[in-house]
Amino acid sequence: MTRPRDPGAFLPLPNLTFQILLALGRGDLHGYGIIRDIEERTEGRVGVRSGTLYATIQRLGEDGLIQDAPFPRDPDTDARRKYYRITALGRRVAAAEAERLAGLVEVARARRLAPERP
For residue 72, what are the contacts with CB-CB under 8 A and spacing of at least 6? Predict the structure, then answer.
């Protein structure tokens, strides 16, 4: 099966998918690092269970949005951890989703359902 290369073919993204891509947008992370990033960035409003995380990571890898990353050369890094990296396609998909969401926010603002920007 050929994977879609058009970022729009992946939209709309499930929330956890977008959250994972956002986390990896700052650099390579292992699973627990992704969970911590999401929980910190959302101030605990988005909780992630490890089973759900790893099932989503597997699908993102199959779709070509993320890939395994080389193990860091830091001697303090736990060798059992597997690291992940966002791909160029994953970046394009995340950007397309951010653009889609920004458009929805603009509609909400125009209809006075969201506050105007300060």
Answer: 28, 83
**CATH number of 37's domain:** 1.10.10.10
Q: Packing angle between helix 15-24 and helix 88-110, nearest 10 degrees? A: 120
Asked if 23 contacts 34 with a C-beta cutoff of 8 angstroms, the reply is yes
Q: Are 94 and 33 in contact (CB under 8 A)?
A: no
Does 116 fall in a domain?
no
Q: Residue 28: which domain range?
A: 11-110
Q: How many domains does the chain have?
A: 1
Per residue of the chain (118 residues), give pLDDT as tens: 566 689 999 999 999 999 999 999 999 999 999 999 999 999 999 999 999 999 999 999 999 999 999 877 666 666 678 999 999 999 999 999 999 999 999 999 999 999 987 7
Residue position matching structure tokens 């969970």: 35
